[in-house]
Design brief:
single chain, alpha/beta, Rossmann fold, 2 domains, five-stranded parallel beta sheet
Length: 229
Amino acid sequence: MIYLFHGTDTEKVRAKAFEWIAKARAKEQNLAYVRLSREELSDATLDEIAFSGGLFVKRMLVLIDDPYQAMKAAEDEEEGEEQGTNVLDAHLDALAASDNAIVILAPKLASAKAKKLAAKAKIEYSYDKNLSRAPATRGFNSALVNALAARSGEKLWLEIERALAAGDAPEMIHGLLHWKARDIMEKGARAWSPEEARKLSLDLIALLQESRRGGLDLSLALERFALAV
């Protein structure tokens, strides 16, 4: 089953998605949680997500984080364009029919793409800037991502420590950092060259994969990563 989080208010979309995931994990503690970035999606991975489960396998909670390239939705729709196909699109029916909980976090989707995904979703959560009057909930940590953009290892380490102390899950912190790395790749940043930004994104993917394989605890790995920035 698919749970779709989208909308033009990127910060609130991300915060609400991670808040939903935290509540789901607390409610069903035997869920096997996995977060996948756009770069990690493949036919084999999506098949495994859709069809895993049964007597010897836990039910899964999967976050697919920003699977579509960021685009200016308003401009695209004025030109009559639709966001390009993605490996995820070919697996939507299987994911929707799965017993696993599949959270698709996709800010700033063009409305045509959002409608197609919403039609497959069990529940759709949409947060647009012009409709969001309440202050942003905790979840999007601007000080954290700004420290990464500024390439300040000391500040980044401090913000990671503060986030962990406030109860933010390491997976959530990693998700924000990797989202910012991709944002830097797409928009540029004074402190990062294009090549360095790409390496930053790949390093964060590798860090998470190594932690999943039983390497260094993710919270410690994030702290070590910050000191090396």
